[in-house]
């Protein structure tokens, strides 16, 4: 097992590949995501032990992000991020959608700025009084 493209006879477990490609921080999280239906291979829901092959198309949902990638190489070992990026190719549609969603999230954050500090005890009491009295 020497890393990239080792995978005897071109077979690697899906959960191991997701971990090696750095989509998930731990293999347990990768397994949980696959079992929970957040990862699809070729549009179908699969199990964590599913064998991957170069050319497979994956739909990966991680939090609010959604990736569409094509497997380019196989690896069972987690390496540097620069090596992990060579294991897959993200589709142009996926990349543009993620950039658009990130921009929308940024604009939404600008429209609803966070307060500089948490309310102090006196302010919290005023807020509670306001809410209880039906002002909200």
Question: Which percent range describes the beta-strand content?
Answer: 15-25%
Tell me the CATH superfamily: RNA-binding S4 domain
Instruction: Report the order of strands and helices.
Output: EHHEEEEEHEHH
Helix content: 25-40%
What's the architecture, going by CATH?
Roll
Explain how this protein is built:
This protein is α+β, with helices and mostly antiparallel strands and 136 residues long. It has a single domain, classed as RNA-binding S4 domain (Structural Genomics Hypothetical 15.5 Kd Protein In mrcA-pckA Intergenic Region, Chain A, Roll), CATH 3.10.290. It has 5 helices and 7 strands; from the N terminus they run βααβββββαβαα. It has helices at 14-20, 27-35, 81-84, 92-111, 121-132; strands spanning 12-13, 39-41, 44-45, 51-52, 57-62, 65-71, 88-90. It has a 5-stranded antiparallel sheet with strand order 3-2-5-6-7. Strands 1-4 form a two-stranded antiparallel sheet. β5 and β6 form a beta hairpin. The radius of gyration is 21 Å and the shape is elongated.
Describe the protein's topology.
Elements: E1 12-13, H1 14-20, H2 27-35, E2 39-41, E3 44-45, E4 51-52, E5 57-62, E6 65-71, H3 81-84, E7 88-90, H4 92-111, H5 121-132
Antiparallel strand pairs: 1-4, 2-3, 2-5, 5-6, 6-7
Helix pairs in contact: 1-2
